[in-house]
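Sorry to interrupt, but I need a hand with the structure work. Leave the record below and I will have a look:
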Amino acid sequence: MTMRLKQLLTPIKVAFVCLALSACADTKQPFSSTAAASSQQSASHSGQRAVTIEGSIVDGPVDNRTITVRNTHGLLKKAFTEDGKGAFQLTTIFRDEDFPLLFTARDETQLLVVGDPGFTLLSAIIRPTIGQRVSISAYSTLITSVALKLPGGLTEDNMEKARDYVMATLDFGLYGAFKDDPVHTLTTPENIHVITKANETLSELIRRTSERLNISGYHMTTDDVISALAADLVDGRINGRGANGTRPRVSAMANFIAGQVALESITNELKVRNSVATPSLDYAILSIYPESRNRIRNVHLTDALMQQAAKTLNIAKLINPTPEIDQTLAGLEKLTSFMRPDRAKKILPATAGINTVLSEVSRRISLSSKGDIKQVNILASQG
């Protein structure tokens, strides 16, 4: 383990308070409540306001990564560097017309996927409110991307609709506050294990979809995959029939791989770069919240996670029926919601055989005709 691993999924505590719009200067000095009240009162007369934003970023490691904040016109309002320690105080006054604010961060230094190009992380704040929070993760990225594709762009209604669409299709076992609102829920010692596991599973779906398509001769970066999925999700389903920018082949691959990574997640054997990620994720949790007793093994199963795995297995059975698929489907039938991964691992057959089968089916899908791709998307979007 390297020291950089300790920065995995490091929460960023970001406070945006405001002193002068023209300066837009960073400061580490605490902003007193008296000064804040005075600033907010004077700002309100000119259409400006002091906004306090606390945030966390679920990703890592994050050595010297720049996070930017742009206004509704695309103008840069803030840029700050995440140094891995996780604490920042920034000052600025936002004008009313600056909202919504779009947060971006480049995900290109993940220790678990050294050498991968990464993808751009996104999140948004639609309007100024007291005690504003923002979470930056793979979930916020896809949700914000879907909202941007919907008519009207970044609005509260679109962000809520996008959240519902993403959570209905790709929640990967999220539960609790993060399932209800992954864009505004911050990490804590009590929930860090849940978002860590699900976020890495969603991230791996994006990376693996890009990798599989590239191997098969279809050049698609991870950012391309996110954009294509976001376009497809405007109708609430990944079915290859969404808005402009939908790529049916990307949808089919993502639909299938979603169940593949879900199955790995069920037994805590999610693979990143062909290595099980659980030890690294556990070490990250310990490094960030040493007081927390929660680890990846404490994340219980959900019905949605098991249904995602079963859907992919049933598609695989139609394409390439094997005993391994039947045995794994039979094992899934015995699993229950709230079961722990260690118990699930004892019930399901050994994963080596089914992983080989699913990888082969994934290869076949990536090379399939347009007609077959359409059928995969129809099957995956049913139910």
